[in-house]
Design goal:
Strand 5 (144-150) and strand 6 (158-164) form a beta hairpin. The longest helix is centred in the first third of the chain and has 33 residues, at 33-65. The protein has helices at 2-26, 33-65, 108-120, 220-233, 252-265, 281-285, 293-303, 369-378, 381-384, 401-407, 418-424, 428-431, and strands at residues 87-95, 98-104, 124-131, 134-140, 144-150, 158-164, 183-187, 200-204, 210-214, 240-246, 269-271, 273-276, 307-310, 316-319, 322-328, 351-356, 359-363, 388-390, 411-414, 439-442, 446-451, 460-463. Helices cover 31% and strands 26% of the residues. The radius of gyration is 30 Å and the shape is globular. The chain is an alpha/beta fold. The strands form 3 sheets. Strands 7, 8, 9, 10, 11, 12, 13, 21 and 22 form a 9-stranded mixed β-sheet that branches. Strands 14-15-16-17-18-19-20 form a 7-stranded mixed β-sheet.
Length: 468
């Protein structure tokens, strides 16, 4: 700013010098009305220029002195550089000490420039990812982790998330020793024939460890089924290691089984990390979600002695031979949209792809209609297309026609029971899947074990909950 003031001052001085010269000329021995009139007009023009320059100088100093926003006392953004590019919209509470600054900006380069300001402030670059026209990056120091999100097609193009520093996904793949072939398992959580069967999927990675998604209902039977499935799949049943356990959202039918699992099996398994993005208390209370679940979830993580990694769009997790890429968290949810309008809490469900052994699986969790619109707006069909789809929201109202058409899977996995599948498959958003899906599997009261890459001839079906 000092440099700008100096340049403006020099312009003002130059204008003043010219005026002085013209004034001296008017007092010299110059005769003739035309010359006298010329000097008078020149003096007037230079006076106008001088006034304009001085006014612009004052306005520029005022603009540069006034920040685009003033963070509240105690805000993490109070210790970060001010983001001056674009139109400031708001700073939003994200829960657990995290906040998100929302702006309208013109290019990813402007956000990358902010990354350089972070570097000047002592932050270290950690990772970045480009998905279509969307740019994501992570910067961190000892106290704060900053996630930069540029999504040009969404309601606002720039979101900057600041949160207390914690565990992060590995920045690059780690070496591993292959001990088995990878497997994908769709686990029934339909312990009592409930219409909504919950969601639980278990992947066996090639190093013999596991990746779990959700878990199921508030029932010991669900927790027992998870553990028994791990034992059957594990190369060494006495050494069960869960590399990552991802929770899409904390609705009862997705997370409650975890609480029972932590109480019963914490001393029989090793869990390295949990992956999630649990919203603020205000959002939880504004929906039909059980407001106690986020707290109980954190207790379960602690009981299992695992790290907790906050998921953000664009992040990549390397899980042995599996590559997990986060496409959506509730941070991309439209600012002006109501959470209740999107079937309550389901808009907070994570959406991600897992690519393993040449097979790409898209997990929608309980993705709802507005979340679906975010996905089809932000990403190309090439990004969304996948060979295997976990059908959104157990086949209930969730994914839109446009989203399912973009995914165009050959295999559809329904985490529900047979009665619910029969009812919901005729809905317009599911009926479009008939145009592309060749193989459909409904969890029911079974456990389906798939080889990867998928082969219909290599699918095993195990009974669950004592069924024969």
């Amino acid at each position: 700013m000092r440099g700008s003031i100096m340049r403006i001052s020099m312009i003002v001085l130059s204008a003043t010098a010219i005026l002085g010269t013209l004034s001296a000329c008017s007092k010299s021995q110059i005769y003739g009305n035309s010359q006298t009139e010329y000097l008078s007009e020149a003096e007037l023009q230079m006076e106008e220029i001088s006034e304009t320059v001085e006014t612009e100088a004052a306005e520029r100093v005022e603009d540069e002195a006034e920040p685009a926003y003033i963070p509240e006392k105690g805000s993490l953004f109070a210790v970060l550089p001010i983001y001056q590019n674009g139109e400031f919209i708001k700073i939003q509470n994200m829960g657990d000490g995290a906040e998100m600054l929302i702006c309208q900006s013109n290019s990813a380069d402007e956000l990358k420039t902010y990354g350089l300001l972070l570097k000047e402030s002592g932050f270290q670059f950690y990772a970045e990812n480009q998905i279509d026209d969307n740019y994501y990056a992570t910067w961190t120091d000892d106290q704060v982790t900053v996630t930069l999100l540029y999504t040009p097609e969404l309601d606002y193009s720039v979101r900057i998330v600041a949160e207390p520093s914690g565990d992060l996904p590995g920045a690059s793949p780690e070496k591993y020793i292959k001990v088995c072939d990878p497997l994908m398992t769709l686990v029934s959580t339909n312990y009592n024939g409930a219409e909504n069967s919950g969601l639980c999927m278990i992947y066996r990675l090639s190093d013999g460890t596991f990746f779990i998604i959700d878990g199921g209902h508030n029932a010991q039977e669900c927790a027992d089924t998870i553990y028994e499935t791990l034992v059957k799949l594990a190369p060494d049943p006495e050494n069960i290691v869960i590399t990552a356990w991802l929770i899409t959202h904390t609705h009862n039918d997705h997370v409650m089984a975890l609480f029972h699992f932590a109480d019963t099996y914490a001393d029989r398994v090793t869990v390295k990390q949990f992956i999630s993005n649990v919203p603020s208390k205000e959002v939880v209370l504004s929906t039909k979600a059980n407001e106690k679940n986020p707290g109980r979830y954190l207790e379960a993580v602690e009981k299992l002695g695992a790290e907790l990694v906050e998921a953000h769009p664009g992040q990549i997790f390397y899980l042995a031979d599996g590559v997990l890429e986060i496409l959506y968290t509730w941070e991309l949810y439209p600012v002006k949209a109501s959470f209740i309008d999107n079937i309550g809490y389901n808009c907070t469900s994570l959406v991600f792809t897992l690519t393993m052994n040449g097979e790409k699986i898209l997990h929608l969790g309980d993705c709802g209609p507005i979340s679906s619109e975010v996905l089809t707006t932000a990403y190309s069909k090439n990004t969304l297309q996948a060979g295997i789809l976990q059908v959104a929201h157990h086949g209930h109202r969730g994914a839109t026609v446009e989203l399912n058409q973009a995914i165009s899977p050959k295999v559809a996995l329904w985490a529900t029971n047979n009665m619910s599948y029969t009812t919901n498959k005729a809905m317009s958003y599911n009926k479009v899947l008939e145009e592309c899906v060749e193989y459909t599997y409904v969890a029911g009261r079974e456990i389906y074990v798939f080889s990867l890459p998928f082969s219909p001839d290599e699918v095993e079906i195990w009974s669950a909950y004592g069924e024969e």
